[in-house]
Amino acid sequence: MNLQWMVAVRPDKYQEVLTSLKKDKIEITNMLDSISVILVSTSHKKTEKIKAMDGVIGVELQGDVSI
Q1: Is the dihedral of CA 11, 15, 16, 20 positive or negative?
Q2: Are residues 57 and 10 in contact, defined by beta-carbon separation less than 8 angstroms?
Q3: 3-class state of residue 61 by DSSP
Q4: Which residues contact 57 (CB under 8 A, 6 or more apart)?
Q5: Is the pLDDT of residue 65 over 70?
Q6: 24, 38, 41, 52: which could form a disulfide with 7 (CB 3.0–4.6 Å)?
Q7: Which strand (E) or helix (H) includes residue 66?
Q8: What is the pLDDT of residues 21-63, one digit of tens each?
Q9: Nearest-angstrom CA–CA distance, 25 and 34
Q10: Are 14 and 36 in contact (CB under 8 A)?
Q11: If DSSP codes are grouped into helix, strand and coil, which group holds residue 15?
Q12: What's the DSSP call for residue 60?
């Protein structure tokens, strides 16, 4: 089952990570260039591969936010 994930990336590695995600056939649902965040839809198992990519700061499961 695919879940929605938020991938925070170092600004200088943003394009490199984006290219790697596409190469690994990970579905990109949105790109927030201005804050270097990429939203993806993938399985929990594939997030370990994303976390290991050079330039990735963190990977978080998207959920409801209440302020």
Answers
A1: positive
A2: yes
A3: strand
A4: 8, 9, 10
A5: no
A6: 38
A7: none
A8: 999 999 999 999 999 999 999 999 999 999 999 999 999 998 7
A9: 23
A10: yes
A11: helix
A12: E
How much is the pLDDT for 9? 97
39: its two tokens? 């939203």
Question: What confidence score (pLDDT) does residue 1 get?
Answer: 79
pLDDT score of 20 = 97
Task: Please give the full DSSP string across 17-53, using - where no structure is assigned.
Answer: HHHHHHHTTPEEEEEEGGGTEEEEEE-HHHHHHHHTS
Rg of the Cα atoms in the chain: 11
pTM of the model: 0.88
